[in-house]
Amino acid sequence: MMKAVPEEMVLVDLVWERWAQGNWSDVVDYRLEGEFDREEAQIAVRVGLMCSHPVASSRPTMREVVRYLEEGDMSDLPELGGPPVGEYEEQGGFDDFMHSYPSSSFEKAASIQLAVGPDEARTEAFLCSPLSPLSNAR
Predict the structure, then answer these.
(1) What InterPro entries has UniProt attached to this entry (predicted)?
(2) Helix axis angle, 62-71 relative to 38-51, nearest 10°?
(3) Per-block average pLDDT, block size 10, for the chain (138 residues)?
(4) Contact at 8 Å (CB) between 3 and 9?
């Protein structure tokens, strides 16, 4: 079910893949070294997947999210099913907001210098959003 090559994979795709395989605990921070409440972690992963649904109206409200996390009872959560597939059309998403402004409003040129070898560097140019941490890079 992998949608992208590993370096292009989106975190939520990886989590869905692990969830579908029944290996959801693979996405828990390894630094916990297995020392965590499995039911709490499973609820957190499941709620995270619910919150990442591409159709906003299918996501839980913040009130529901808080209730799910505070009550910590798997039986209270709606069934997840599988990962969302297909194309979704929804009005008023962030992408629509971003594209409603001229590109100069949300993009600016940035560059970064990369070390290629001990005595060699390469400069790469790209566009970034002013919301990006890279937009303040000099």
Answers:
(1) CR_Ser/Thr_kinase (IPR052059), Kinase-like_dom_sf (IPR011009)
(2) 170
(3) 60 90 93 93 94 88 94 85 64 51 52 58 58 49
(4) yes
